[in-house]
Design goal:
A: Rossmann fold, six-stranded parallel β-sheet, 11 helices, B: mainly alpha, 3 domains, two-stranded antiparallel sheet, 7 helices, 2 strands, about 80% helix, about 0% strand
Chain lengths: ~280, ~220
């Protein structure tokens, strides 16, 4: 028994990789359809915030994530955008992450196809080009945004676009949302949210979600969507299930596997030590 | 030479540092105009910093290839990867879409960078699971607390965990969501806030040291 347990503790890690791969593939191919019963309160806060905005309010979305964090953050961005358009809000999309440009192109491609086909570019939404210095952009957005963004990503002047009617800086906007896998949300809170009293919300990866709890408690963040679970929660709230919801089953099983492995390994260790 | 290499940069740093700091607390037209100019400059300098970083990267990998150090073959891929993305980017003038079709840059981003970057990150999941089994040993009370907190969070954050909790521990009338919320609101906030305050104080001290010329590493060795 002792030898067997020792062998089991030193099992080839490739077998664990294989077990995880099988466990992940199964629910992706055939979703289990587990009910998402407990929705996060901070996700609901963001949903309610957007729900309460008057039509034609301006929402600024800073999509600062790259393909590495795409599975968690892209569904969040799509769900929030869908909600904003459904509420007839104006949306400005920008990025301060060079790796995000292609993902924003993808969103730009999807808006007229399936996110909000009735919305018109330049009237209801706009996509701004990538800028290399986040702090400069965030500070400038509080004063005169046209000094740093005079053209959209296609090179068209933005000042006369209908979507920017009555907008000079973030004080004329009603909500800012930063979706990121980096510390960009902290910067948005410090340089734009707090300084210019601009309501900020965020979307972050599950692993960094806990770190934003102080901001939620002080009201510096009006809502937070965390990881794939947050995306699934938001999709449930807007009643439009997509990638967040379909990925949550795989996430559930992988989490369960981690718990089982830790518990099993520790029971075996205790067995070897005391019995 | 000392004047140009040392005193003038220190004076510029001191003046710009103080003016930028003051402009944060003096919200009038003059300080806004000053910040606008600085923001434009920062953006331009950041663009050049990218270029500088690129040359530094090339130089470092070129030397590795020239000296044929261990793993020099990987350095070739730095140049290959650069050319594969930059040549199509130049040809398409930096655009990823041409009407409704992808340009070479867009194709490279969507079907190469996207896949490679996603793969690199997702490999982590396999290592985490393997490490959880092979290395996470609860040998002390601290490790026990860490595991208990992680267990509750893992269970509370996924639907399957929530279902299991309700089935097995529903009789306790303790909702896992409430426990996760308490963990988020009390111990996590306390720990995180301490770290954030430490970071902020460290940041302020470092900034003041740079402004007053005590910290001079940014000026190089000379």
């Amino acid at each position: 028994m002792k030898n067997f347990l020792e062998k089991l503790l030193k099992i080839d890690r490739r077998l664990i990789f294989l077990a995880l791969a099988i466990l992940l593939v199964f629910p992706i191919v055939k979703p289990l359809g587990l009910p998402n019963l407990n929705l996060g309160s901070e996700v609901k806060s963001l949903y309610e915030r957007i729900e309460g905005l008057p039509p034609r309010s301006f929402v600024l979305m800073s999509l600062d994530y790259d393909p590495a964090t795409r599975p968690e953050l892209h569904p969040q961005a799509v769900a929030i955008l869908r909600h904003a358009f459904r509420k007839n809000l104006r949306v400005g999309i920008l990025t301060l992450n060079a790796g995000a440009t292609g993902l924003i192109e993808e969103i730009g491609e999807r808006i007229p196809k399936d996110i909000a086909p009735e919305k018109v570019y330049g009237k209801d939404y706009v996509i701004l080009p990538y800028q290399p210095n986040p702090v400069a952009v965030m500070t400038q957005m509080g004063m005169d945004l046209y000094q740093i963004y005079d053209k959209d990503r296609d090179g068209s002047p933005i000042r006369d676009m209908e979507v920017f009617k009555g907008i000079k800086n973030v004080k004329d906007m009603q909500l800012g949302i930063c979706i990121t896998g980096t510390a960009m949300l902290d910067y948005w809170i410090a340089y734009t949210g707090d300084k210019f009293k601009f309501p900020m919300a965020g979307g972050v990866t599950a692993v960094s979600q806990m770190g934003y709890a102080p901001y939620l408690q002080t009201g510096q963040l009006k809502g937070l969507v965390g990881g794939m679970k947050g995306a699934a929660d938001y999709e449930t709230l807007i009643n439009h299930k997509e990638k967040g919801t379909s990925g949550i089953d795989a996430l559930s099983l992988a989490h369960l596997m981690v718990i089982i492995l830790i518990v099993t390994a520790n029971i075996m260790m205790l067995w070897l030590k005391y019995l | 030479m000392t004047l140009i290499k040392k005193y003038i940069p220190l004076a510029i740093c001191f003046l710009v540092g103080l003016m930028t700091l003051a402009s944060y607390y003096v919200p009038n037209k003059t300080s806004e105009n000053y910040l606008e100019v600085m923001n434009k400059w920062e953006n331009i300098v950041a663009g050049f910093a990218f270029l500088l970083g690129l040359f530094s990267l090339f130089f470092s990998h070129y030397n590795k290839i020239r000296r044929k150090v261990d793993g020099w073959g990987y350095s070739l891929f730095v140049f290959v990867g650069f050319l594969v993305m930059v040549v199509p980017a130049l040809m398409s003038h930096g655009k990823q879409m041409d009407g409704t079709s992808l340009t070479g840059l867009g194709w490279g981003y969507r079907f190469m960078f996207n896949a490679l970057s996603g793969t690199m990150f997702s490999v982590l999941a396999f290592y985490i699971v393997s490490t959880a089994y092979r290395a996470f040993r609860i040998k002390s009370a601290q490790a026990g607390v860490l595991f208990a907190a992680a267990l509750v969070l893992i269970i509370g954050k996924v639907p399957l965990g929530q279902l299991m909790w309700d089935k097995l521990l529903g009789w306790t009338h303790l909702g896992v969501t409430q426990i996760v919320q308490w963990l988020m609101d009390v111990p996590v906030v306390a720990g995180r806030r301490g770290i954030m305050m430490g970071l902020a104080v460290g940041g302020i001290v470092t900034a003041l040291k740079i402004i007053f010329g005590i910290e001079r590493q940014y000026m190089g060795k000379d």
